[in-house]
Design a protein that fits this description.
Layout lengths: L8 H4 L4 H18 L5 H8 L3 H10 L9 H9 L5
Length: 83
């Protein structure tokens, strides 16, 4: 599916169309993920990125990608024994 939006000419004059398209896709994917409307994997797919690159974008935007409390993590790690 394609969606068309109108952008001011002065905005698009400073950027190439592929860069604008990528930024819009990434922003929308982050927005959807942040609101728990898609999974991390689906958001990365929508953004056209691999999972680790999308996780990096989330980190840059201070969006957690691990949904676990400190206490839950500590409980999980206390039962972990390295092999």
């Amino acid at each position: 599916m394609q969606i068309a939006i109108d952008l001011p000419n002065d905005f698009v004059a400073f950027q190439a169309m592929p860069q604008i398209q990528q930024e819009v896709r990434t922003s929308y994917a982050v927005w959807l993920y942040q609101r728990a409307r898609v999974t991390l994997v689906k958001a990365a797919e929508l953004a056209g990125m691999d999972l680790y690159d999308f996780m990096s974008v989330c980190k840059d935007n201070q969006i957690p990608v691990i949904d676990i409390s400190r206490e839950e993590l500590q409980a999980e790690l206390s039962g972990f024994t390295p092999q």
